[in-house]
């Protein structure tokens, strides 16, 4: 593979992903509790409690600790004069190259959790594809957005 | 300023029919929900509820269609095509001539007795608005359509003559387009023979569509058909024995197939491709005539597809991916040559796109990536076979036969795939079951991605995907499991950084700015 892009995303992004992980774990937790309650009412076998408990613990470990960590370690980006290069992916390492000339517009966006941590995501759109850098410091994101939009305007198409 | 024009009154009827057609499924649901298995209550309103709903709907729609026709005006002013419509919310849409990408014509069955056409004016659609910035003139006379297209192309020509084009356009990149010349002659490039259309119809996958059509048709009329009578006959019918039933089913399938062949045949009748240097014109159809315009400079990529069955007979098909924004025109790729002789195809492509290199030697996929082409499929095959074997023992074990099929297909995919870079052109070939070859230029590639799984890293291979614009959606050309060095090479080829030196060499000739 080519040389890794230079910049990492904000460390607080990891925290945000962990919070997301907590929400996802809740999705597993609800049926697990439901199964346990039903098992209690109908005096079901013991293994139901064990399986539901194990599922929740495993989901919590993967979704709150392991996956966000790998993802954060993996996430790199670099905005150069003529192109943007991204690297991300949990199991599959994806390296994406977007030339400045192809950039049509840049957006920053911010959900409630990102806002709380003073973060913001950037989405770069070409005529066909969208590429997101998920968590940057707000001022950094704004600066990057205007930088990309300036670079995209001056970039020359050399076919 | 020209005066404001109205559409033909048939517009109201067409709008009505269109709305009815779109509403048919909800209406059927209403009818089925209300009409089946209900006792008559003696209450007129309750008994005829469905009819009443239907009637009210028809009246409402016809009034809406009438108003739409009544309020719709269009005219030319200040180098813009302008339309105005709407009753409560008045909408105006002004489209500058130079933004107009293509003017398409359709002649439906309702149009033809009156000598009318539908004109569709398409702009460089913005992908964020699905509605697009198009303008449809639902029904105008043929002379009027002629006039509209004349005004627009006249304005475009004047603009082209006025604004000096970059010099190299009449040199190399677009040799067919010389700046000062008034008008190019329209030249017919390709016409499908009856035999080809028939073959295409035979291969078309519309059989299922016709079947579901029949099913919907039957279910729709289920409360009208005299079931008891049919049932009595059915009992007698069954006495004829299984043979008759099988024969009936076969006859029904045959009828469906014949219908689908006829349908496709009519749709593709007289399929002709012509071009005038700037634009491609694709016209087809017997009952409903269509003419689609594809500006050459909006074409993003060309795809040649070889269905193994069609290839046995020596035919392939060619589609172009255009940046045009129309959603309803059969999705993203436009059929350029739906069925064309394999011997002819390269000559035709060369005539249309002289810059495309079709005979480049392709790089093959390394031998060590062979397992990757079928290994992933085992994720769904193994559970499937296991389940079938367990629950349907012993016959379920026959599902094991799927394994060699999957492996063989994978091997075939591995062997057929390839890629090549020739200057600014990327050629990608891959097989699903049909073999696809995509030709795309670097300036049309919107982004490129290199990806690697843990397993791929062990074997030192990677997958590269080139995305380009096709309609409003991205389309992708995958180069799977190639050597990492080659994958990096492809990324470097795309990376503008490594073109800086070459850039200096060609700086004197700025590129044409297309989309």
TrEMBL record, chain A:
InterPro entries: YdbS-like_PH (IPR005182)
Domain YdbS-like PH: 72-148
The entry's keywords: Membrane, Transmembrane, Transmembrane helix
Transmembrane segments: 21-41, 47-67
PANTHER family: UPF0699 TRANSMEMBRANE PROTEIN YDBS, UPF0699 TRANSMEMBRANE PROTEIN YDBT
Name assigned to this protein: YdbS-like PH domain-containing protein
Organism from which the protein derives: Bhargavaea beijingensis
Automatic annotation (TrEMBL), chain B:
Keywords: Membrane, Transmembrane, Transmembrane helix
Organism placement in taxonomy: Bacteria, Bacillati, Bacillota, Bacilli, Bacillales
PANTHER family in the cross-refs: UPF0699 TRANSMEMBRANE PROTEIN YDBS (PTHR34473), UPF0699 TRANSMEMBRANE PROTEIN YDBT (PTHR34473:SF2)
Domain of life (superkingdom): Bacteria
Domain YdbS-like PH: 69-150, 270-351, 415-494
Transmembrane domains' residue ranges: 49-67, 197-218, 238-266, 372-391
Pfam families named in the record: bPH_2 (PF03703)
Entry protein name: Putative membrane protein
């Amino acid at each position: 593979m080519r040389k890794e892009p230079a910049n990492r995303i904000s460390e607080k992004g990891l925290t945000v992903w962990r919070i997301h992980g907590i929400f996802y774990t809740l999705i597993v937790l609800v049926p697990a509790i439901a199964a346990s309650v039903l098992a209690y009412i109908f005096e079901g076998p013991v293994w139901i409690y064990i399986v539901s408990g194990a599922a929740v613990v495993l989901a919590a470990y993967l979704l709150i600790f392991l996956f966000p960590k790998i993802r954060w370690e993996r996430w790199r980006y670099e905005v150069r004069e003529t192109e943007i290069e991204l690297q991300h992916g949990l199991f599959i390492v994806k390296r994406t190259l977007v030339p400045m000339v192809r950039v049509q517009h840049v957006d920053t966006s911010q959900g409630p959790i990102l806002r709380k941590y003073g973060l913001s995501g950037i989405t770069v759109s070409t005529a066909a594809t969208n590429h997101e850098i998920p968590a940057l410091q707000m001022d950094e994101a704004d600066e990057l957005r205007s930088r990309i939009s300036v670079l995209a305007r001056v970039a020359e198409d050399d076919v | 300023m020209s005066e404001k024009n109205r559409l033909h009154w048939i517009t109201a009827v067409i709008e009505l029919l269109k709305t009815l057609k779109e509403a048919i499924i909800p209406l059927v649901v209403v009818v089925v929900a209300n009409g089946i298995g209900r006792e008559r209550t003696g209450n007129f309103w309750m008994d005829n509820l469905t009819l009443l709903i239907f009637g009210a709907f028809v009246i409402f729609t016809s009034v809406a269609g009438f108003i739409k026709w009544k309020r719709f005006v269009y005219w030319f002013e200040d180098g813009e095509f302008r339309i105005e419509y709407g009753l409560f919310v008045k909408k105006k849409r002004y489209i500058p001539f130079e933004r107009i990408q293509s003017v398409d014509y359709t002649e439906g069955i309702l149009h033809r007795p009156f000598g009318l056409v539908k004109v569709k004016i398409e702009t460089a659609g913005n992908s964020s608005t699905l509605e697009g910035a198009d303008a449809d003139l639902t029904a105008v006379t043929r002379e009027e359509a002629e006039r509209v297209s004349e005004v627009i192309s006249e304005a475009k020509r004047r603009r082209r003559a006025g604004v000096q084009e970059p010099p190299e356009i009449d040199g190399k990149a677009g040799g067919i387009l010389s700046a000062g010349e008034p008008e190019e002659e329209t030249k017919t490039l390709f016409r499908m023979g009856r035999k080809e259309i028939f073959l295409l119809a035979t291969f078309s996958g519309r059989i299922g569509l016709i079947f579901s059509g029949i099913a919907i048709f039957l279910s729709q009329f289920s409360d009208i058909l005299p079931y008891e009578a049919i049932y009595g006959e059915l009992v007698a019918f069954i006495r004829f024995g299984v043979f008759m039933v099988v024969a009936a089913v076969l006859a029904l399938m045959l009828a469906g197939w014949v219908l689908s062949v006829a349908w496709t045949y009519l749709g593709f009748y007289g399929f002709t491709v012509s071009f005038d240097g700037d634009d491609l014109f694709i016209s087809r159809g017997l009952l409903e005539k269509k003419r689609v315009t594809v500006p050459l400079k909006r074409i993003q990529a060309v795809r040649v597809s070889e269905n193994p069955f069609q290839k046995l007979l020596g035919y392939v098909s060619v589609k172009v991916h255009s940046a045009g924004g129309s959603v309803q025109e059969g999705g993203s790729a436009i059929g350029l040559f739906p069925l064309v002789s394999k011997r002819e195809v390269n000559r035709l492509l060369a005539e249309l796109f002289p810059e495309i290199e079709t005979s480049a030697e392709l790089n093959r996929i390394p031998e060590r990536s062979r397992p990757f082409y079928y290994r992933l499929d085992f994720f769904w095959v193994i559970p499937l076979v296991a389940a079938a074997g367990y629950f349907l023992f012993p016959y379920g074990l026959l599902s094991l036969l799927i394994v060699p099929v999957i492996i063989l297909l994978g091997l075939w995919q591995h062997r057929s795939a390839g890629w090549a870079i020739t200057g600014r052109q990327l050629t990608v070939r891959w097989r699903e079951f049909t073999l696809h070859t995509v030709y795309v230029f670097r300036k049309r590639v919107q982004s490129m991605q290199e990806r690697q799984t843990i397993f791929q890293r062990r074997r030192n291979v990677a997958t590269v995907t080139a995305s380009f614009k096709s309609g409003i959606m991205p389309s992708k050309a995958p180069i799977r499991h190639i050597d990492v060095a080659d994958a990096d090479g492809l990324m470097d080829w795309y990376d503008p950084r490594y073109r800086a030196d070459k850039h200096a060499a060609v700086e004197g000739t700025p590129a044409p700015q297309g989309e």
